[in-house]
Amino acid sequence: MSCLDQTSAQWFVEASHSYVEGHQKCAWCGGVHQVHKLETETATEFSCNRCDFLVRYDHQLDRYVLFSGDPRARNTSPLTMHDLEVNVSAGSEHGTE
Predict the structure, then answer these.
(1) Under DSSP, is residue 17 helix (H, G, I), strand (E, B) or coil?
(2) Which positions ≥6 away from 16 have C-beta within 8 Å?
(3) Are 55 and 46 in contact (CB under 8 A)?
(4) Of 27, 37, 47, 86, which cross-links 14 as Cys (Cβ 3.0–4.6 Å)?
């Protein structure tokens, strides 16, 4: 199933769960601590700084809108600092050779 096989409403539900359960995780690219949630009287939206994914629900119009994220951002960079490869020789960084 393609990422775009889901409806805007389904993406909104997934974005809501990812935001809460995944520490502001993006439903599109998987980036953690990347998503901002904006709530107004008329709408709720989730947007990702990493891939530009945006999904919005307009409460007054009962309408969902989806802007898919950049496909190049999907799972291409580490999600946390623990995922980074560290290649440092012992002592060489601190001048203790």
Answers:
(1) helix
(2) 46
(3) yes
(4) 27
CA 6-9-51 angle, to 5 degrees, is 70
Amino acid at 93: E
Domain boundaries along the sequence of the chain:
3-83
Residues 6 or more apart in contact with residue 47 via CB below 8 angstroms: 35, 36, 38, 53, 54
Residue pair 45/57 in contact (Cβ under 8 Å)? The answer is: yes
| pTM assigned to the model | 0.69
- Tell me the one-letter amino acid at 96: T
Helix (H) / strand (E) element for 6: namely none
Residue 68, both tokens: 């898919």
Encode pLDDT of 18-61 as tens digits.
Answer: 999 988 999 988 888 889 999 999 999 999 988 989 999 999 99
Give the whole-angstrom CA distance, residue 65 versus residue 4: 13
